[in-house]
Amino acid sequence: MEKTGCVSTSPTLIKHGPKDSFPLPHIDRLVESTAGNKLLTFMDAFSGYNQIMMDPEDQEKTSFITDRGTYCYKVMPFGLKNAGATYQRLVNKMFHEHLGKTMEVYIDDMLVKSLKKEDHIKHLEECFEILNQYQMKLNPAKCTFGVPSGEFLGYIVTKRGIEANPNQINAFLNMPSPKNFKEVQRLTGRIAALNRFISRSTDKSLPFYQILKGNRFLWDEKCEEAFGQLKAYLTTPPVLSKPEVDEKLYLYVSLSKHAVSGVLVREDRGEQKPIYYISKSITDPETRYTMMEKLALAVVTSARKLRPYFQSHPIEILTNQPLRTILHSPNQSGRLAKWAVELSEYDIEYKSRVSMKAQVLADFLTELPVLGTPEQPENQTWKLYVDGSSSKQGSGVGIKLESPTSKILEQSFRLLFNASNNEAEYEALIAGLRLAQGVGAEEVVAYCDSQLVVNQFNGDYEAKDLRMEAYLEVVKGLEQQRVNVASPKSSCHPLNGGNRKKHNKEPDVLPETIIETEPLVEDDHSEPELEPNEHPEPEPRVFHEIDQIPAKDWGADWREPIKRYIVTGELPKNKWQARKMRIVSAKFCLSKDTLYKRGVSDPYLLCIFGPEVEIVVREVHEGLCGSHASGRAMAFKIKRMGYYWPTMITDCVKFAQRCKRCQLHAPLIHQPSELFSSISAPYPFMRWSMDIIGPLHRSTRGAQYLLVLTDYFSKWIEAEAYASIKDSAVNTFIWKNIICRHGVPYEIVTDNGPQFISHEFEAFCSEWGIKVSYSTPRYPQGNGQAEAANKTILSNLKKRLSHLKGGWYDELQPILWAYRTTPRRPTRETPFSLVYGMEAVVPAELNVPGLRRTEAPLNEEENSAMLDDSLDTINERRDQALIRIQNYQQAAARYYNSKVKSRPFFVGDYVLRRVFDNKKEEGAGKLGINWEGPYIVTEVVRNGVYRLKDLKGSPVQRPWNVINLKKFYV
């Protein structure tokens, strides 16, 4: 047949025609759905597009010119803008019952798959029946039937998994070294086609990309070496696995100087198998990110590239860095806050790394570039810089450990107890020495800002304070342990002048920074357990406070040395103690073997010791003339009575502190004791707060209570009035007003009301998969969203009612409508607009018509387009509202945290619990006790929340907040 040249007249039609938005299937999903089957059949349609007839009205639009005349297509030609989408819509309609089960189709590429060999013929019959029904023809030359593996969409799919295309591999392996820019571009293009199979591909291909960025072509030894290493890697490319439905997947990330990389893996019979490798080069602005920001960038990049996996699977990010704490910190802003919002839509957990169970993951053993410490030569020195800081908001510690090869490991954390500056410095030194032990450092030089700590360690100063002595023993114990185990030397040196500022600049900032962040999980001072070739887990650590100083042991009589000096002139052998004795004894005199102290404003004071002290203190504090005064007031009173001993203020303070009556009647604590903690939700109707208002004045319809639920994101309120509220009414309300209107929520936060802790309510929530979180008893701030909503509803009810208080029932719905159409301060949007994407029409617009009432109804098409635009941009408005919520919470946290005085408790501590009005002794009135107990702390649920038991061992039913607890001194 003679071929005839033709000239198409349709380029403008192809380029400017309306685009068909029908989506093509995701290639990765199709390939993974195909892998793992025992038998496969690959089919290709014969001139696939030409089997679809053109609409007679559109045939002339496909006309083309030849030397014999002008012709047009009766069938759909290749090259049309929407040809692929049209064909995909056709095959989806044809095989819709089999797609994802026994067939996969991508435009004209069809595949039949079978998990069992015996089912394959049946699956082929079903496929051919459909082909016959629609008269679709196949190309036999491109069909392959009943094979265990084959090429599909550029990949090799087998029962084992997904393999790289051998043609692509061979094209790369047979490629000679590039000689110009064009060949380098061809090389990087072939690498890009294999990126899914190449671990840390950007790092391996970095020299090639640097050539393309330069002005001249230079193929040097570095490029040739990288080229050879890539070829060696691709001779045995990894086989990628396919995830199962709802299976938990794991993400490893790794950083380098020029790229962030990640690998998504799954566990199969104890072995970790890769699913997808990703890698991205770091732009110039990103090179200036902090290390934690780069690590967060690696996670965000992985989530964007692997979005289908993150949306359909729970993801566990394995990292030894405090990434979760940094992303979830209320003090974060800027890019970290935006990334935290972006990641909040996924089901992500952060866990510490364990040993990797696959050789193909070897590139991800090193998470951070600064942690890649090579094997240490013997007798090389590690440098340790430590600093502690104490402020009104709490205490913090910063550590910087530098290896012999100048690699740096940094840590910072908060202390969960009040510490002085010197105690914080000791905690920093202890933490640093333990960290050095964990990484196997054999010789350490420690630099500390505190001259007191350094000189006490070196023996230049004496540790007279019992707490400093206890800390020094811990440090000496660590140092001695290191000598015994592996180290011939461990020293601590001060830094002075400019050197100290130069070396301790970063650790000096770290504790002040960490004080402002949320408190972290308590640690137990246990030694790190390391696996071979694995770094110590660099999670922030919070150490226990040194044990309480034991009760005072009176020991030797303090008066005897002074008496001996006055009588015989005997002095201590130490010259400094002898000098002190001469100075001190001048203030004492002896009369008939009784020692007196000369007072400055009082007469001679009788010097007493031991049991005499206890008798005087007890009588002054709780005797007939005792007033249970505070420690210092009691000490001054005893002094005015004419008694003295050297530690009288300290002893009086401790005695008053341990007095049970004083503790039970102590004033209530109103100052916040824990840092601000907020709850938020990433999208509407995910998390609700629930509470009951009442009893109110009985309404005209007999109602006395309101059941109120508030959405954490949009601030939308659902409320209903009841005469009485039982658990069955709560279940009905949630079914009718929440589930049927807004969908099944993820979580409901409520208090400990009997309706909410009943078995019926818990069973109802469990049936619907709703998580129920309870606030601690007698702590309404724990359910702050509900309290804020209750306050608004009650305020509006009061303003609407006059003397007829029973009419509040009829005012409830108007109040809810007004609330939903009023912008809320945290979001700066109305709840109605965040839910529906547009503002509601309110009565004011009926009385004074605006544009929506006058112009919009006249132009239905424009009005419809504007409504569509509002719906298209609703997600952006919600994202902006979420950022405003977080900024609002951060501002609230800064104000709240400025007033916090930390009062942490630990397991085994004795505490008193606040006595509330309904629990006070009957008839006691204002003379009743303010605290009851003592109780014993059995568990730290989270910061500021504790489980208790009484002295008989019976557990208290619910955990209690620290604001309702007070330390009990035994």
From TrEMBL:
Pfam family name, one: RVT_1
PANTHER family (alphabetical): RIBONUCLEASE H
A GO MF label: RNA-DNA hybrid ribonuclease activity
Annotated spans, Disordered: 486-540
UniProt name for this protein: Ribonuclease H-like superfamily
Domain Integrase catalytic: 680-839
GO biological process, one term: DNA integration
Source domain of life: Eukaryota
Comp. bias regions, Acidic residues: 519-531
Alphabetical list of InterPro entries matching this protein: Integrase_cat-core (IPR001584), Integrase_H2C2 (IPR041588), RNaseH_domain (IPR002156), RT_dom (IPR000477), RT_RNaseH_2 (IPR041577)
Residue span(s) of domain Reverse transcriptase: 1-157
